[in-house]
Amino acid sequence: DGIHGTIEPYDGRWVIFHDSMVDIVIDLKAIKRIHRFNIGCLEDQVGDMYLPRSVAVASSTDGDHYQLLYTHTNPKLPTQLIRHTVDYHKEGLAVSARYLKVSFGRARVSPDPVKNQFVIDEITVR
Predict the structure, then answer these.
(1) What is the pTM of this model?
(2) In what helix (H) or strand (E) does residue 32 lie, and over which residues does it extend?
């Protein structure tokens, strides 16, 4: 909807995942030139919401063969209880694609999957 989430995790603008891996495929409906993207995430350790362990973005013209554009790994979890937002982004791209696949790997903080949530809001592509 184009409205970014606030620092409040229950403001109705965040999507919460409990899965160990999540792939989101965005169909742009036609091959378009992509210059940048931005992915918003929230970390609220008191609420058992952590940054994803990994974030990757890949592009494709046919939906079958993807080219990796971006990868980021959060190698460790912060040691203090915090609530903040983080944007994963890349600018200066010059890629033609119809599909973008955004892949998230969950942080494995606890054996209880409810305590391993990750939270995203807007994924913008320009």
Answers:
(1) 0.90
(2) strand 21-34
Burial 2-33 (b: 16+ CB within 10 A, else e): eeebeeebeeebbeebeeeebeeebeeeeeee
CB atoms near residue 108 (< 10 Å): 13
Residues 6+ apart with CB under 8 A from 94: 33, 35
- Identity at 47, one-letter amino acid code: G
Digits of tens for pLDDT over the chain (126 positions)? 788 888 888 888 899 898 889 999 999 999 999 999 999 999 888 888 888 999 999 999 999 999 999 999 987 766 667 888 999 999 999 999 999 999 999 887 777 777 778 899 999 999
